[in-house]
Amino acid sequence: MRQSKPVILAGLLLAAAWMLRASAQSGTVAGAALFEGARLITGDGGAAIENSAFLVENAHFTRIGRRGEVPAPAGAARVDLTGKTVIPALVDGHSHIGYMKHLTSGAVNYTRENILDHMYRFAYFGVAASQSMGSDFGELPFQLRDEISAGKYPDAARFLTAGRGLSPIDEISPDNMRQAANPATTPEGARALVQELVPRRVKVIKTWVDDRGGAVKKLPPEIYRAIFDEAHRNNLRVAVHATALADAKDLLRSGIDVFAHMISEVDDEVVALFKQHPNVGVLSALGGPHRAVYAPWLDPVHPLILETVRPEQINRLQARFPIRDPEQRARSQSAWDRLAAGIKQLSDAGVRIGVGTDGGGQQGDQFIGWTMHAELENMVMAGIPPAKVLVAATRTSAEILGQDDLGMVAPGKSADFVVLDANPLDDIKNTRRIARVYLRGRQVDRDKLRKGWAAAGTGN
Ligand SMILES: [Zn+2]
Q1: What is the distance in A from the centroid of ligand 1 to the CA of 92?
Q2: CA-based, 20 to 30 A from 267: which of 138, 155, 387, 418?
Q3: What CA–CA distances, in Å, run from 392 to 232, 357, 396?
Q4: How far is CA 194 from CA 166, 209, 254, 275, 290, in A?
């Protein structure tokens, strides 16, 4: 198709404007910048470095130390962060990207524009990467993953996709997210589906082992074992949605890599099995039952939610949460109590725990980005100390997802970090007091994003 002269001219002008903008920020794009004075939580689990200095060169951290110990190379920009606290950018191990929009949630919303909007939201909230868990389909997720990684959308968080999940056939229905899944009906068929994902360069494969309260014939062991075996032959990890204790035990014996959610209860036998399989990761995803009984950020509405979510969506949620029906409330409370006790027990036993939010989930109320901060509070309320929760949400989540260059402020890692106005070790809710976010060494233009959402009625 031929383009008219005005179109070409507009394109050239846009390109020129982009280059000017990039060069104006070249101090943090390709050049060097020394950040000084912040309290630095590196993600290694050790004590924070007070009055720190860290150097970013070519979008990566290169030197870390105390102020005065890290010299600035000639021409480096200097950024004073006195009084601030820096943490590695957060990593969300479990989300469903592209489905939620306004009051609706569904495959009809799964467009380039909506996926990108979600990745901007993650970035706005200080999340460097989010792992979409088996609800993606078509070519689009792979294209966008690669375009974002290549720096085409500098304000967007990394979109990690597992492609289409592998599901038992009767889990798949047009109105749930498993609409994207491929049915795994035989061990050979399941192996072929894993093979399809290999050239897509996914790191994680998603599957479901859950009878949904008897509504679904759950994936049989011979099929999930075939999935594990085929994935491991190809150096891939398998994340499983499973909630029942008995299933968790068999999955641990069968070679599971990642529990996509916290399991519904924990006993000594499952703890022992985790200890026998120390590389298995558990993503928290505690939000569901807790949100039903505890959602103080909806009254009054937290400013970060006001900035990013449409009023009608907030109203709907305020009408729903916290749940008022006493019976339903009691059920959610006891589900939360069990989950909280279970994750604390696993954490104390040294199990590898990362953070997953199920953000963008089917309920339509798991606000993209916000859920990460709510989840950190959930984990602290479950009894895990803030320092440990921050490691879970950064280094451990990155390790579980195979994102080796994320999750820490350390030499060689991608310069993805969040500048906070207050210390989250004092109060985990301080992760919400975001002053700035840097991804790939460049400051995310949060003002532009916020204004764009406001112009569209707040929200995408
Ligand atoms: Zn999920």
Answers
A1: 12
A2: 387
A3: 24, 12, 5
A4: 8, 16, 17, 28, 34
Chain centroid, CA 262 distance in Å: 15
* Strand 258-259 with 90-95, pairing: unpaired
CA of 453 to the centre of ligand 1 (A): 26
Which residue type occupies 46? G
CA separation for the pair 131, 276 (Å, rounded): 26
Q: Which of 152, 166, 158 is nearest to 195 (CA)?
A: 166
Tell me how far the alpha carbon of residue 164 lies from the centroid of ligand 1, in angstroms: 13
The one-digit pLDDT tens for each residue of the chain (460 residues) are: 344 444 444 544 444 444 444 434 433 445 899 999 999 999 999 999 999 999 999 999 999 999 999 999 999 999 999 999 999 999 999 999 999 998 888 999 999 999 999 999 999 999 999 999 999 999 999 999 999 999 999 999 999 999 999 999 988 988 888 899 999 999 999 999 999 999 999 999 999 999 999 999 999 999 999 999 999 999 999 999 999 999 999 999 999 999 999 999 999 999 999 999 999 999 999 988 898 899 999 999 999 999 999 999 899 888 888 888 999 999 999 999 999 999 999 999 999 999 999 988 867 578 899 999 999 999 999 999 999 999 999 999 999 999 999 999 999 999 999 999 999 999 999 999 999 999 999 999 999 999 999 998 766 5
178 Cα: distance to centroid of ligand 1 (angstroms):
10
From ligand 1's centre to the CA of 66, what distance in Å? Answer: 41
Please write down the HEC assignment for all residues of 356-423: CCCECCCCCCCCCCHHHHHHHHHHHHCCCCHHHHHHHHHHHHHHHHCCCCCCCCCCCCECCEEEECCC
Surrounding residues of ion ligand 1, Cβ less than 5 A = 133, 358
